[in-house]
Amino acid sequence: MTPGFVDGDAPILLIADHASNHVPADIDLDVDPALLNQHMAIDIGVEATGRLLCAALGMAGIFGPVSRLVIDLNREEGAAGLIPHESDGFAISGNTLLTAEGRHARIERFWRPYHAFIADRIAAHRPKLIVSLHSFTPRLATRPEEQRPWQVGVLYNQDDRAALPGIAALRAAGIVTGDNEPYSGKVLNATMNAHAEGNGIPYLGLEVRQDLIGDDAGVALWAQRLAPVIGAVAAAL
């Protein structure tokens, strides 16, 4: 399945792994359809925000075409959670029925083409900066006592060349910013590990709190707030 794509001439590439809640008609996850509009199925607000950012900065964007309940594109191929059996306390019963052949087929159908598309784009048009765009829920259903006060989190693993100035720029703009929060890029960073760190390309891993970009007004506001930060980080590299 081909990812969503926006072309651009700027030397920046945006990647949004969890931009879609699409479940192909021939895949039965056996879940309440209402879950497909929640954070366990999609990064709420990310596709619309990402497309506005691409337009504002003239950068290319790659958007994951399938729900992470079908396959999580931000996981290594062999990761246990690649095809999830549960998410935030909800069972994904249809996935538990997959045979080894079924798992392999799903990887071949979705995961490999997505990462091949990214690799091909980088090989043909090497960016000076990669932006990874995700959103996070203010709290998890399984851990309601844990509040997530950050408006934006910056995630990174070993390469902090863009992350540290990005954190500084976000905080200077008055944005409540988490440094490797609400979770650490040293633990979960698969796409950036492969395509940014693996190619020696600086990257800015942005996690926006989903309630801030849950409607058109929020999307427009946060695209407007994030665009100059991304632009400044890219210009300083």
From TrEMBL:
Keywords: Hydrolase
Keyword Hydrolase: yes
Top-level taxon of origin: Bacteria
Transmembrane segment boundaries: none
GO molecular function, one term: hydrolase activity
Database matches in InterPro entries: N-FG_amidohydro, UCP029730
Entry protein name: N-formylglutamate amidohydrolase
Native source species: Sphingomonas crocodyli
Hydrolase in keyword set: yes
Short name of one Pfam family: FGase
